């Protein structure tokens, strides 16, 4: 009992010291603000552009065929060369056709002589018939002979015309200007109904660009128009910009001139065609190109740098900076890409600020310090 007394006397002193130590502890300091780069959202009317993969097609690809049967005598063009409309390309052997024309002309002369004789006979019989000097039958026969001779003359004239046409067809010309193809038939070949194709000529100016829009894309565009996110041009004419395989822009813009009446049952796509000038023949049929469709407007569109948009399991989100310097994580609905920027269809308002750099350390309600005040450059860099 006597040994425990000093320990009991020290207990109040120890408790008092512990209380004093607890009263001297300071609360934990808040985390330092995160330095970020910010972008100020701006809603504005922007041009709408949609990209598709297209293929160039000749606006008029013509088969050069022989209209008459005979032997092919000569090829008059250089294979693969550019040809002008009306330029001769093949020559058939003309001798059988010249002989046929001479025979038809001789037949015409013979029928004309018969007609003159029938006319003279009718002129003699008609006055006599009026005086009842000859029977009515003789007048009827003379009139019938005249009419038959006149009809025979018309047939002979038609035969001469046909023979002249056939002779003219022996010189085969191209009806369009463009790029010629290889010769399907060679000199000395007999050209008949089964092998009348001689070559092709593809018109290069203007050129067509055909591309397909998927059914899903059609529904998306309809939704955008219904929700006011897309406005069609007033005249409903869409312009087309072409980007070649090397990444360069084609110098001439075209416009959409044809839309198919139905969706393809095989591919589920909707065919569109644009026409573009090709004066220097830079485009050739069969090229794959990127086509940008222009002319529509995105009213009140919001375009933000792509790196400001983060991804998570539920979708896309951005960090929005509040007026008090804290941040909130907000879900957004993204639209199409535009260079290094991204259209935001839903989730942001004009004038709000979002984080574009430094988001790795952010948590909800984190305080931030903006290193770069104002908006970033237009390319989002």
Textual characterization of the structure:
Helix 2 packs antiparallel against helix 3 (136-169). The model is unreliable at 373-381 (pLDDT under 50). This protein has 4 helices and 19 strands. The chain has a domain at 95-169: Helix hairpin bin (Helix Hairpins, Orthogonal Bundle). It has 381 residues and is α+β, with helices and mostly antiparallel strands. Strand 15 and strand 16 form a beta hairpin.
* Largest sheet: spatial strand order: 2-9-12-11-10-13
Mean pLDDT, to the nearest integer, reads 88
* Number of helices in the DSSP assignment: 4
Global outline: elongated
- Kindly identify the CATH topology of the domain at 95-169: Helix Hairpins
- Which CATH class of the domain at 95-169 is shown? Mainly Alpha
Helix content: 25-40%
Extended strand count: 19
The chain-level structural class is alpha+beta
Q: Strands, helices and their partners?
A:
Layout: H1 5-24, E1 34-40, E2 43-65, E3 70-75, E4 82-83, E5 88-92, H2 95-130, H3 136-169, E6 171-173, E7 178-180, E8 190-191, E9 197-214, H4 215-226, E10 239-243, E11 254-259, E12 269-276, E13 288-305, E14 310-312, E15 315-321, E16 327-338, E17 341-346, E18 353-357, E19 368-372
Parallel strand pairs: 1-19
Antiparallel strand pairs: 1-18, 2-9, 2-13, 3-5, 3-8, 4-7, 5-6, 7-9, 9-12, 10-11, 10-13, 11-12, 13-17, 14-15, 15-16, 15-18, 16-17
Helix pairs in contact: 2-3
């Amino acid at each position: 009992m006597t040994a425990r007394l000093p320990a009991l006397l020290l207990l109040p002193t120890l408790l008092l010291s512990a209380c004093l130590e607890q009263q001297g502890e300071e609360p934990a300091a808040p985390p330092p603000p995160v330095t970020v780069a910010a972008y100020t959202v701006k809603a504005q009317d922007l041009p709408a552009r949609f990209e598709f993969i297209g293929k160039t097609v000749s606006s008029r690809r013509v088969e050069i065929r022989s209209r008459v049967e005979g032997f092919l005598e000569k090829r008059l063009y250089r294979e693969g060369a550019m040809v002008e409309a009306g330029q001769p390309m093949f020559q058939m052997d003309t001798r059988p056709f010249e002989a046929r024309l001479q025979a038809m002309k001789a037949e015409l002369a013979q029928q004309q002589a018969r007609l003159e004789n029938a006319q003279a006979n009718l002129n003699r019989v008609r006055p006599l018939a009026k005086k009842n000097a000859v029977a009515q039958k003789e007048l009827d026969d003379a009139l019938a002979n005249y009419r038959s001779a006149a009809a025979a003359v018309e047939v002979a004239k038609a035969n001469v015309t046909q023979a002249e046409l056939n002779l003219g067809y022996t010189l085969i010309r191209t009806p369009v200007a463009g790029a010629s193809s290889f010769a399907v038939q060679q000199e000395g070949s007999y050209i008949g109904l089964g092998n009348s194709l001689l070559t092709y000529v593809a018109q290069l100016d203007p050129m067509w660009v055909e591309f397909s829009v998927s059914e899903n894309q059609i529904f998306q565009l309809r939704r955008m128009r219904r929700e006011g996110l897309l406005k069609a041009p007033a005249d409903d004419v869409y312009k087309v910009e072409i980007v070649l395989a090397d990444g360069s822009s084609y110098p001439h813009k075209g416009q959409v001139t044809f839309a198919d009446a139905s969706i393809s049952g095989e591919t589920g796509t909707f065919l569109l065609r644009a026409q573009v000038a090709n004066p220097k023949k830079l485009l050739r049929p069969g090229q794959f190109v990127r086509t940008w469709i222009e002319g529509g407007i995105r009213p009140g569109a919001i375009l933000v740098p792509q790196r400001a948009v983060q991804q998570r399991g539920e979708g896309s989100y951005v960090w929005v900076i509040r007026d008090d310097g804290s941040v909130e994580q907000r879900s957004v609905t993204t639209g199409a890409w535009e260079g290094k920027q991204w259209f935001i269809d839903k989730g942001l308002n004009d004038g709000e600020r979002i984080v574009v750099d430094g988001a790795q350390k952010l948590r909800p309600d984190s305080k931030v310090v903006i290193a770069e005040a104002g908006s970033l450059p237009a390319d989002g860099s």
